[in-house]
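Case study B.
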Amino acid sequence: MKKLLFCLFLLSQSVHAEIEVYQFTTPELELRYQTLTEELRCLVCQNQNIADSHAELAQDLRRKVYEMLNRGETNPQIIDYMTERYGDFVLYRPPFNVKTLILWLAPILTLLMGGIGFWSLLKRRDNSNERLSDSERARLDKLLHTKKSDSK
Amino acid sequence: MKLRFILPLGAFLVMVIFLAIGLKLDPHEVPSPLIGKPAPAFTLPQLHEPQKTFSPADMKGKVWLLNVWASWCASCRQEHVYFTEFARANPSVNLMGLNYKDESDAAMQWLARLGNPYKISIADKDGMAGLDWGVYGVPETFVIDKKGIVRHKQTGPVDVMILQTVITPLIEKLNAEGE
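Model:
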């Protein structure tokens, strides 16, 4: 049991060693560090942000963000630094420009197309259920009436 | 009524085309926004003579290559053969090596054993110069023109084909350009 506990202790140590700890002078700076590292993509393991990634590149990028924050640089300055080197791809929230036009407008367009399709379908169904003419209504009433009287 | 079948079929075909193109793309190849921009500056010690430094500004007026490599990187070893061949065949080409996040001893042993194609090797121990150049996966190779502008980036190992059809013609073209 003691051995097992010791092994678990060792494991927990190695897990914690992966993400380094940075000290911040103000809580506001720490919050900015967190939001920035969560919005930047790690280019090695592309479906992770640099806050979650254990890749060496992510470590370096975190360090860079930390250094830039401590130097008093603003969030846009840090984002610009990253996009100048790695392109818009480094951002999890891509900017709205000519290149990303389709990306941003596709959901709205799809919704619009679906809406139009659904609307025309409803309209067509409305037309096919044409109202009964007077003679048809009279026949229907008569049928219903006879049914009722039969069951009595 | 025919439209009812043609429309979904058309939409499906468009989707198939997009997905087929998507399959062919390599998501690991991130186009470098550095192309056409001045090479990021740094001043770093040289690998073999740490008291001497190297800076991209030293190369003003020359066309040069910067190959980012490390002794721990398997595909660097794969491309190394082609670079040693290339350097032997083209002694006039300024091929510089940026030793990225590596132990200097291991790097020098590597070069001593496998051959040294680089005119100058630069030691970027903490990888911060690499970060400035947008390096995200070694090996990477940059071609810089006489004005100090980055003109091409090759991500991943080079081979004979790339050296012959991309790198060499580009160097010739850039050499012909004025300063």
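The longest helix of chain B spans residues 3-24. The remaining cases will be described in the next quarterly update.
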